[in-house]
Write a structure and sequence with these properties.
With 172 residues, the chain is an alpha+beta fold. It has 5 helices and 9 strands, in the order E-E-H-E-E-E-E-E-H-E-E-H-H-H. Strand 1 and strand 2 form a beta hairpin.
């Protein structure tokens, strides 16, 4: 399951101060570099053939070229901000079930999603290894192995199935 890490955009001023995501567009316009922060805001799922759902579309006699992004969940506005940043294209339209970017930007978008996914996969792999090491360090002894089982019932005979007992009673 290759999920894609989402980024909320923040900006860093020349003095090193961090500008919140809302002010990042204004800061980016003034020449301030945008940086990604950790909390995931959106996720893009892969198709049934394990491909990213990023497509080219041509309309109006192939004079209008679009890049489509589908199968996303989460904060749509954060995804739009990231696509504007990655594609360097301010014309991004949110439609029902898809996001349309003016121009052919499939290569840039796929490269961004794959780089984000590889960063997330690396973090998840480290986390899984840590959980496995923790689980192996504290393996509990099952309760049925810790206590000896009774091999005889209270009357000194081997324990019998209740069904056997019913058969013996009915036979008399």
């Amino acid at each position: 399951p290759a999920g894609v890490r989402a980024c909320t955009v923040a900006a860093v001023t020349a003095e090193g101060a961090t500008v919140p995501a809302e002010g990042a567009a204004v800061a980016a316009a003034s020449g301030v570099a945008a940086v990604a922060s950790a909390p995931p805001a959106f996720k893009v799922y892969r198709s049934n053939y394990n491909e990213l759902p990023v497509y080219h579309d041509y309309k109006n006699g192939r004079t209008r070229r679009l890049t489509l992004v589908r199968k996303y969940v989460g904060d749509t506005q954060a995804l739009v901000r990231e696509l504007v940043r990655v594609c360097e294209q301010p014309q991004v339209y949110v439609r029902t079930g898809r996001i349309e970017i003016k121009g052919l930007h499939k290569d840039k978008v796929v490269a961004y999603f794959e780089s984000s996914a590889s960063e997330l996969d690396t973090r998840l792999e480290i986390l899984a290894q840590a959980r496995l090491a923790t689980a192996q360090a504290r393996v509990p002894t099952p309760s049925h192995l810790a206590m000896p089982r009774d091999t005889k019932s209270s009357d000194g005979n081997p324990p019998s199935c209740s069904m056997d007992h019913d058969l013996r009673v009915s036979a008399k």
